[in-house]
Specification:
The chain is an alpha+beta fold. It has ten helices and twelve strands. The chain binds zinc ion.
């Protein structure tokens, strides 16, 4: 099934719903970063909500960056979200595999930790970027984003995120749902949405059953008006040129000389997508001779 994102309005257009299926993009992140199951679930959940947040930006120049640091063994989680719903991301330590003893579920809250913050930076292409920071609630990601939207953006929201990992560590189903009360939402709408949330199956289960985001919306809400559908994917826009500037600029001339003479080249890796770029001895010499 293709990854896609569907936007809709429900409750006579007083409530916004966005649902995405993100199995392929979560699996691509898993494969690129060599992630173990709990890391796949943690990053996959952030990529899923990140794709939704990116799609909510108004102009093509806007980018959203999510940074989570809860003090747990996974370290920092970073996700970049683009207006077309595409995302990229990584975690500090991808080799995380913990489960909760009582439920056997992947222990995302433990790996992420809950002593820290969730930060959202919106690069609006203006001088003043928007940044909102909230304390983590559970480290399970869904709860933390619901809290972020409600407190920092002051839009009462519910978030459901799920990533299902197979015994061979591959991601076999993943997706997300965001429900937001628009300013004219009524008390009745809130009660109705609470009832929906109390009865809805986990997102990963719905996606695993083969349901598309549109089917999930139509089966969950009785008066859904579908607004748009778009394809989404894991996307990094790094390039050898870009990394050359960013990373080699931090090296001293002596360090470059050392790499030329001792290693006869070097390899630079993009943190976001784990692509390796080789620089030959000649290319390093060129850099060495550039105006430094
Ligand atoms: Zn990259």
């Amino acid at each position: 099934m293709r990854d896609e994102l569907v936007k809709a309005l429900v409750c006579e257009e007083r409530v916004r719903v966005i649902v995405n299926s993100t199995t392929n993009l979560c699996e691509e992140a898993r494969r690129r970063h060599g992630m173990w199951p709990t890391a796949s679930a943690a990053l996959g959940r952030v990529l899923s909500i990140g794709s939704i947040m990116g799609s909510m930006q108004k102009s093509e120049n806007e980018k959203v960056t999510i940074q989570i640091n809860g003090g747990g063994p996974i370290g920092t989680i970073m996700v970049d979200c683009f207006p077309n719903g595409d995302v990229r991301g990584f975690v500090s330590d991808p080799e995380q595999f913990y489960t909760y003893n009582d439920t056997g579920k992947l222990a995302v809250g433990y790996a992420v930790g809950r002593e820290g913050t969730l930060k959202v930076i919106k690069d609006l292409g203006l001088k003043d970027d928007f940044a909102g920071t909230v304390r983590l609630q559970t480290g399970e990601i869904g709860d933390d984003f619901a809290y972020y939207f409600t407190v920092s953006e002051q839009v009462p929201s519910a978030v459901s995120l799920g990533v299902l990992v197979d015994t061979d560590n591959s991601v076999i189903a993943a997706g997300g749902m965001l429900i937001q009360m628009l300013p004219n939402a009524t008390e009745e709408d809130i009660v109705k949405m609470e009832a929906v949330l109390a009865n809805i199956k986990p997102m990963s289960e719905l996606i695993h059953e083969g349901k598309t985001p549109e089917q999930i919306i139509l089966e969950t809400f009785d008066d859904a008006k579908i607004l748009s559908t778009q394809d989404i994917k894991f996307r990094c826009h790094c390039s050898k040129e870009g990394l050359k500037g960013a990373v080699l600029a931090t090296l001293s001339k002596d360090e470059i000389k050392e790499m030329i003479e001792e290693d006869h080249g070097c390899e630079i890796t993009c943190d976001w997508c784990n692509t390796h770029y080789e620089f030959s001895e000649d290319e390093l010499k060129e850099l060495y001779n550039e105006n430094r």
